[in-house]
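User: Fold this; tokens only.

Assistant: Input:
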Amino acid sequence: MSALIAEDEIIHEAELVRLEDTAALDYVRQSLDRLPTRLVRPACRQDGRMAGYALLGPKAEPSRSSGPFRRRVFWLLPYDRDTNPDGLYATGAPAKAVDPRTLAPGSKGRKTERSEGGPPSSAMRELDVRLPQ
């Protein structure tokens, strides 16, 4: 859901809590989770580990349709590049992945050459498409 997260869905974020040093991570996955509160640490995903989460400000309201608050959670799976550098994501990255250096409260983050795992493909070079460093 990372690229699908709209800025207006995260405008009430007050702070991002980092549970680990993300400076060494090429990417983190992000998703909007339904959580019962604005501030409490979310439960960890079963198969992966949580790298961080968003805290919401006092003006945030629960979803009218589902009840809970929608908050961003940042996480990694056991087969992601940080633990398996030669694996599935040796190059490229999951659709939900963004470079953690591009994250800020209320800003959805973006993919970079670093998060995508290396230099641009020949097709990107041909089209002169460049991702941020």
